[in-house]
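Morning, I've got a small favour to ask if you have a moment. I've dropped the whole record in just underneath, so have a look.
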Amino acid sequence: MALADTRLLEGLIGREALEALIQTCGGLSIPIPKRLPLSGPLMDLPPAAQAALVRYAGGTELYIPKCDGARREALYQRIRAEYDAGARVQDLARKYRFTERWIYEVLGRPSREEAQGALF
């Protein structure tokens, strides 16, 4: 079983197909057949993405990560951007189904890039 490199997969099958794959198979090991057609949740991928997946990992089992941390950080970035564009905290809380207190918590946190700082 190989851990899927999400950046490599994104380059192979595209961002939209990768997001669909993570949504349906995140946290699971899935067998990739050696030949098309694919079955199960993989058959919902676009044909070009299916072909690329078979070329990359055909005949193996691929672990698709859940990517919860990255998805959560992307959500927090959207909240910050909407707030910076003038959205009210109360509206953001209602829209994302969080408490106002949690929205303030998110707004007070540095983004992942800010927290890491410049590496070089």
Notes: The helical segments are 6-13, 15-25, 47-57, 68-84, 89-96, 100-108, 112-116. The CA atoms of residues 34 and 58 lie 4 Å apart. The mean pLDDT is 85.
